[in-house]
UniProtKB/TrEMBL annotation:
<comment type="similarity">
    <text>Belongs to the glycosyl hydrolase 28 family.</text>
</comment>
<keyword id="KW-0732">Signal</keyword>
<dbReference type="GO" id="GO:0005975">
    <property type="term" value="P:carbohydrate metabolic process"/>
</dbReference>
<dbReference type="InterPro" id="IPR011050">
    <property type="entry name" value="Pectin_lyase_fold/virulence"/>
</dbReference>
<feature type="active site">
    <location>
        <position position="242"/>
    </location>
</feature>
<dbReference type="InterPro" id="IPR012334">
    <property type="entry name" value="Pectin_lyas_fold"/>
</dbReference>
<dbReference type="Pfam" id="PF00295">
    <property type="entry name" value="Glyco_hydro_28"/>
</dbReference>
<dbReference type="InterPro" id="IPR006626">
    <property type="entry name" value="PbH1"/>
</dbReference>
<keyword id="KW-0964">Secreted</keyword>
<keyword id="KW-0326">Glycosidase</keyword>
<keyword id="KW-0961">Cell wall biogenesis/degradation</keyword>
<dbReference type="GO" id="GO:0004650">
    <property type="term" value="F:polygalacturonase activity"/>
</dbReference>
<feature type="signal peptide">
    <location>
        <begin position="1"/>
        <end position="20"/>
    </location>
</feature>
<protein>
    <submittedName>
        <fullName>Probable polygalacturonase At3g15720</fullName>
    </submittedName>
</protein>
<keyword id="KW-0378">Hydrolase</keyword>
<keyword id="KW-0134">Cell wall</keyword>
<dbReference type="InterPro" id="IPR000743">
    <property type="entry name" value="Glyco_hydro_28"/>
</dbReference>
């Protein structure tokens, strides 16, 4: 009996030690971070990251504690770390160097403020606010020199939640070459006149879920570009901004593909575009199998927008080739529009848009006038409510 008790005791102890060793936390304060908002804590964060990634535990957390403000310069979080889970818990606030000249780029790899690469099973969460002092950059510096806030690339199984991103010099969040990624409950807050500040930019990724986010910015709230498939976006408030866009695709003759995109339960507040697909002339590939549904617009323009003549400068030459746009459904899209054109389907004559379905559309102009519709080379059908009267779609 005594032996049995001792055995149970020792067994329990060793079990506890296994459990406690399987997860380890690394607090940036233990690696020299100060969190005063004035001392540069970049080096301390780097050391805490190395410990978090290199630890022998199968599950680790890097803690950025609440109640402090950390001044951070360019920071790399590179793997692989080979863990069942690796968590970054950000409850403190993070601020950028206050002047563009104070950003230090040490290895010529400085497009991204916080750059996560090759880190599988990664979760980044917390209620921290990440502020970029973008107003110092937006109207004075060249686009390619402006840092994006957070880029996560080349990984499987990533989640991002809770954080707020504010006034970022370039894009807020970039998801690049990821498989299985879930972004939820994040807030993006930059002014409507901040140039090229996409909220969430998704490229080369598959199995992407974005939900319950509030995004206000000066460019696309969410942009989905080449090599991306199986995307579900829901419960988003977007505005100011340029809507939720597939594209731009096909720039400089590129072969681009995006497919299987579902966007639902979105509110557009005073956005420049709403549910949008934009492609350049001269490209190839396709944008297909998409549904945009349950969308409410408050004083937005071009709420439904397919543009195969996208051109972000004054003059683009006419070209025959184009990406194929097909099987796109816009369903239950209601609300008010600010400019005359509420529905815009501008497709190429050489590669028309096909299988375009408009189902239950009810959009009125602010002043209760009829919003207007433009279509060219768009084939498909209209069903259900049809306000403004969409007659320009060609029958299949
Ligand atoms: C990620 O987690 C899964 C499930 O726990 C595990 O099978 C896989 O090996 C992990 N990936 C890495 C790189 O450790
Ligand atoms: C994804 O990562 C989380 C930890 O962030 C882990 O718990 C989960 O098992 C992983 N899932 C897969 C399918 O690897
Ligand atoms: C969303 O994030 C905030 C922190 O930014 C947190 O307080 C809140 O609990 C989160 N909500 C959910 C549903 O996770
Ligand atoms: C059209 O797209 C929808 C949504 O992605 C998809 O479920 C459906 O199978 C597609 N139809 C065809 C004919 O590919």
């Amino acid at each position: 009996m005594e032996k049995l008790l001792i055995f149970v005791f020792v067994f329990t102890l060793s079990l506890f030690s296994v459990i406690s060793h399987s997860h380890t936390a690394f607090n940036v304060l233990n690696y020299g971070a100060v969190g005063s908002g004035r001392t540069d804590d970049t080096h301390a964060f780097s050391r805490a990251w190395e410990a978090t990634c290199m630890s022998s535990s199968s599950s680790t957390t890097m803690d950025v504690p609440s109640g402090k403000t950390f001044l951070i310069n360019y920071l790399h979080f590179h793997g692989p770390c080979n863990k069942k889970s690796i968590n970054i818990e950000i409850n403190g606030n993070i601020i950028a160097p206050s002047e563009p000249s104070e950003w230090r780029c040490e290895n010529n790899d400085c497009h991204n403020w916080m750059d996560f690469r090759h880190v599988d099973n990664l979760s980044i969460r917390g209620n921290g606010v990440i502020t970029g002092d973008g107003d110092k950059w937006w109207h004075t510096s060249e686009l390619h020199s402006r840092p994006n806030a957070l880029k996560i690339s080349s990984a499987n199984n990533v989640t991002l939640s809770g954080l707020t991103f504010k006034d970022i010099p370039h894009m807020h969040v970039i998801l690049d070459s990821l498989t299985s990624v879930h972004v939820s409950n994040i807030t993006i807050d930059s002014p409507g006149d901040s140039p090229n500040t996409d909220g969430i930019h998704i490229t080369g990724s598959t199995n992407v879920v974005v939900d319950h986010c509030r995004i206000g910015t000066g460019d696309d709230c969410i942009s989905i570009v080449s090599g991306t498939s199986n995307v579900k976006i829901s419960n988003i408030v977007c505005g100011p901004g340029h809507g939720i866009s597939v594209g731009s695709l096909g720039k400089n003759g590129n072969h681009d593909i995006v497919e299987n995109v579902e966007v639902s339960n979105v509110v557009f507040i005073r956005t420049m575009n709403g549910a949008r697909i934009k492609t350049w002339q001269g490209g190839s590939g396709f944008a297909r199998n998409m549904v945009f549904e349950k969308i409410l617009s408050h004083e937005s323009s071009r709420i439904i927008d397919i543009d195969q003549f996208y051109c972000d400068h004054m003059h683009c030459v006419t070209q025959e080739s184009a990406l194929k746009v097909s099987n796109i459904t816009f369903r239950q899209i209601l609300g008010t529009s600010s400019k005359h054109t509420a529905v815009n389907l501008e497709c190429s004559s050489s590669v028309p848009c096909t299988d375009i379905v408009l189902d239950d559309i009810y959009i009125v102009q602010n002043d209760k006038q009829r919003a207007s519709v433009a279509c060219n080379n768009a084939y498909g059908r209209v069903q259900g409510m049809n306000v403004p009267d969409i007659r320009c779609l060609n029958q299949m």
